[in-house]
């Protein structure tokens, strides 16, 4: 594949789902108190609107809410441990990869660059969260300290069971050819 074809294929990703299926990811469980409690203790974020029913009832939320940056956590599938080594440590099997052509073109490495959250509403107990990730932007080829590559940005929109947007996560990675 020549450079022009590669760039055209990359630009073609913009506006497309990241997972290849085009279907949203549905949380395996509703927002629930035990997971909120685990998160709060793991991150030492003891905000009473996450943990104290009486306090939360008198807050602007009117009840227990989930930490908003847990949005991604709610939609994570259970890891499949069998074959994880063969998948390079990936916790789930991905049968369709819209960026496989990059690896074939020599852009074999990936590094996460940044992640930004926009919160519309805190998730409430019982919410069923759905996530849909769409490629938002692809850079021109860049020379970096790690190697030559492309910055790929996608936006995951999280919604509740009524289709109300809870928030968005913008995530950026660098797919690159490592310097030798």
UniProtKB/TrEMBL annotation:
Tell me the domain of life: Bacteria
Q: Which residues form the FAS1-like dehydratase domain?
A: 29-166
Signal sequence bounds: none
Pfam families according to UniProt: FAS1_DH_region (PF13452)
InterPro entries linked to this entry: FAS1-like_DH_region, HotDog_dom_sf
**What is the recorded name of this protein?**
FAS1-like dehydratase domain-containing protein
Q: Which organism is it from?
A: Mycobacterium attenuatum
């Amino acid at each position: 594949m020549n450079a022009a074809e590669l760039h055209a294929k990359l630009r073609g990703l913009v506006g497309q789902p990241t997972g290849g299926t085009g279907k949203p990811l549905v949380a395996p469980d509703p927002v629930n108190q035990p997971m909120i409690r685990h998160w709060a203790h793991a991150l030492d974020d003891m905000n009473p609107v996450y943990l104290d029913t009486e306090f939360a009832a008198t807050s602007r939320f009117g009840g227990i809410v989930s930490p908003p940056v847990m949005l991604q956590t709610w939609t994570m599938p259970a890891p499949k441990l069998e074959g994880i080594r063969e998948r390079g440590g990936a916790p789930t099997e991905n049968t369709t990869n819209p960026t496989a052509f990059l690896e074939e073109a020599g852009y074999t490495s990936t590094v996460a660059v940044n992640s930004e959250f926009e919160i519309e509403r805190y998730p409430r107990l019982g919410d069923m969260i759905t996530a849909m990730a769409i490629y938002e932007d692809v850079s021109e080829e860049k020379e970096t300290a790690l190697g030559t590559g492309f910055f790929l940005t996608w936006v995951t929109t999280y919604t509740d069971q009524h289709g109300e947007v809870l928030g968005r996560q913008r995530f950026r990675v660098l797919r690159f050819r490592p310097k030798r």
